[in-house]
Amino acid sequence: MQRPSRILWRAVLLFSLAWLGAAASAQADQTLRVGSKRFTESYILAELLAQTAAPHTAAPPVVRQGLGNTAIVYEALRSGAIDVYAEYTGTIALEILKGPPLQTREAMNAALAPLGLGVAVPLGFNDGYALAVRAADADRLGLRTLSDLARHPELKLGLSNEFIGRADGWKGLAARYGFTQVPTGLDHGLAYDAIAAKQIDAIDIYTTDAKIDHLGLRVLEDDRRYFPRYDAVLLYRLDLPARLPRAWAALQALEGRIDEHAMIAMNARAELQSVPFDAIARDFLASSGQAAPAPKSERRGFVAKLFGPDLWPLARQHLLLVAVSAGAALLIGVPIAILVFSRVRLRALVLGVASLLQTVPSLALLAVLISMLGAIGTLPALIALTLYSLLPIMRNTVTGLAEVPEGLRMAGIALGMTPPQSLRLVLLPLALPTLLAGVRTATAIAIGTATIAAFIGAGGFGERIVTGLALNDRELLVAGALPAAALALLSEGIFEFVEMLMRRRRRTRPTSPAP
Description:
five-stranded mixed β-sheet, disordered C terminus, D-Maltodextrin-Binding Protein, domain 2, disordered N terminus, elongated, 24 helices, alpha/beta, 10 strands
């Protein structure tokens, strides 16, 4: 029988764990989670939503910035990873609901209700798609409308990858106007650099982009009325108003407060003056909807961006992603490689599947994992990084085992070793240098690929890279790339040191005296 004191302590422990779990669940239930896509305006609006709700929530709102394209952020909303984000009516109608472009808000809500989602709080501005060209080219060629552009097939188009693939994007536009050009896919922020450098002649733009006037671009008229309106609204989970009624009431107060001029001014502060998103949102709310000019002191130089206060938190997140994924790949890959080593056909099949996983684009794999797991953030990122790390570990383990001389294998059998003993005492020690080289390669892959994890809110140095792409901020891009490169060099140095110790140990290992 168990002693009463032990039973009592176990009961107390179980009660404590249950209480902590319930407390954590209640805390999470009281937390507002705001998401954003990967472009300047969406970053700013996410901060606006979070700061508006913050005084009315028990816990500080969590902002999940830069969650890739519409498919990823929408899946995050459906799964409950976020509660609300700023979306556009045209995108909801065509991309999410796959319906006609001119749906009313009531029709959208009726279609979204079975999914547990709703549309509310029109923010007050329309941010539509359009095509733009350099003003000098427009004057020289007489380009005023999209029909005019279609009559010049010699002009090169550089369009964002999302626009090329959207239901309301390039395919339908080309059919409506008869475009014959094959566009080049570009990141939205980088397209402005490309058109300024005359590498391309036309780009897709959002009508509230700050760089339209800054670069002297001419927005072409949609004379055949292809694009619908893209009024900014909140796309939210239907349980949000009941779960956080005070925060929801505060968000509703944003209705109609942001006009197009205010949004353009806020975008300009971010893209042209390098003002942080949270500062822009704070100033807008403090000025009662009038975007204030940026103080000169808010502009950060490269050194400030590189050694900013987010450096160590991002480094910790990046290291965690790499260490856990590489460790999991090691624990999974080595046993699988050992099991299939002696079975030639099975070995070829397993290594072929691992090779196939390497060819899957990172964002596509992350999107599939989000859909399967119903979650964003660290978990799908770790699974993706682990899958990418499997191939070098398994391949090098198999190669290392195959390189063990046949004479040594036979010596182990002659000494009466069982197969597990031979594996543990002969094969694996001799294959260890090759196996370690596989772990080294897997770690390097994980360090580089972990930067993509920022697209689904998993953190790491990719956050700076993603934000730098959205803002077309080269300094911020480099401030994210340099620490990742430094981490890769550090890992190479550590593995080189370990291999040096292993070589020294093999050279100094004492030999048994002859009988």
